[in-house]
Amino acid sequence: MLLPAIAMLAAIPFLVSNAQAPQQASSPAQQPYAPVTAPPYPTIPTPVPQRTGLNIVVIDPAHGGTDPGARGAQGIRESDLVMDLTMQVRRALEANGFQVLQTRSGNENPSFDDRSTMANAQRGAVFVTLHISSTGLPGTVRVYTLPDSAATVATGGILSWDRAQAPYITLSRKFADAVQGELAQRFKGSPNNSQSASIRQLRTTAAPAIAVELSSVSVQDRTDLDRMMPGVADAIARGVAVFRPSYVLPGEAGGQP
Amino acid sequence: MNGSWRNWVLAGLAVAVLIAAIYFPFLKRKVKTTAKITQPSEEQVRRELTQTILQNSSDPIVKARMFWISGDDESALAGTNVELALSKDPVLRSKQVLNTLLAGPVDSDLRTLPADAALLAFYVLPDGTGIADFSEALATATPSGIQSEQLAVDSIARTLEANVPQVRRLKILIHGQEFDTLAGHVDLTQYFIVNTKAAQPPPGSNGSFGSLGSPTKSPTAASPAPAGAVPGKSPQR
Q1: Which of chain B's ends, N or C, has fewer CB atoms near its CB within 10 Å?
Q2: Residues 62-101 of chain A whose Cβ lies under 8 A from any Cβ of chain B
Q3: Average pLDDT, whole number, for chain A?
Q4: What is the DSSP annotation of B104-165?
């Protein structure tokens, strides 16, 4: 006796829902051309475009391994000097809250592409390659980007690895000017604005990328260059901080097309 | 008699020793001076021979404009007029001006290319691409650095631009090979703009030449902007 009663009670919700279902289904049918003012499903709010912030600085101590770079008469090697400079730049950047990655940390010589890969794999990174020249007025520092003419992107929407820097040229120039401005204040004889050069390392880097070059390994005493390093490190860190608000990746809201 | 002869011989020897003693410093100095005159390298001899062959007496003497380092600013190039017998043929003309550029200015401190470097060959393709093939010394003896390497390339490009209007862009080879960089920094896998007015990308090329006009904002950087890159293979140096 009880079992049929329980079965009937359990069936009541199904009977009720089945009775309501045709009513719901019939309402659009009753007004087939009425405009739909609200979708019958929960909507996903349109995402507010997020600007990718600049958080990571990839530092590239140039040369290394079997490639010593520029060599001075006193046995000064560019590859050694840029490692020392890298450590100082790293400390200055970390003190300003940036995360720092290095393309090499010992006396090895990664390929140009391997160095670029480190920056290309990051989101929100800039790339700084450090050099000491053979020539130039001792005690001066110059910042370089690729020339504007390298910004031409092949049509078709596919950007080849060989031209990875192309969409970033304008940002790179802004970044370079920010750093060069800081350097010009500290090192007399340095230019006020950045310059352009066809630097192989920058071409394959898909991020705002600059090369910083100190003059030079021709100094009689290495301490002349050592004395420049804290100023260069501080100028780079400040330049990155100055550039930070301008950092919007190409294709993002407010960025370049 | 014997004693008199002995005295004369001794006196003669003494005079000879005295003369030798006086002459010895002069002789020493002369040897040093001679040693300083170094033998020209193989590349220099080759260049001199090539230059002699290239100079034709029927070529008109014109004012060619060469670009070496500025005497006022070592980070910039300056144009210098040189009177040269230049052929009308663009290939010969390019060889003539580049050999003069390689020979360097009067002040050797202002040269942009190494003294030992030589131009091995020069070709002009129908699309206006000039291919300059230099000896290995260009890569091994150019001072390593962004500034020095860029000045070297710019001096070649600007000298061609000023004297050979048929050359629109430039490809630099080292001993017939494409190098990744000149001396560790400047990209040799790309083409460099030479003639801005005529510079248009040839059909089928990936990307444009860009423009030579100086995008550098620095007043100290008088060198022109290098070309936009046309990708190429990148073998290791």
Answers
A1: N
A2: 62-63, 67, 69-71, 78
A3: 83
A4: --SSGGG-SS-TT--EEEEEE-TTSEEEEEE-THHHHHSPSSHHHHHHHHHHHHHHHHHH-T
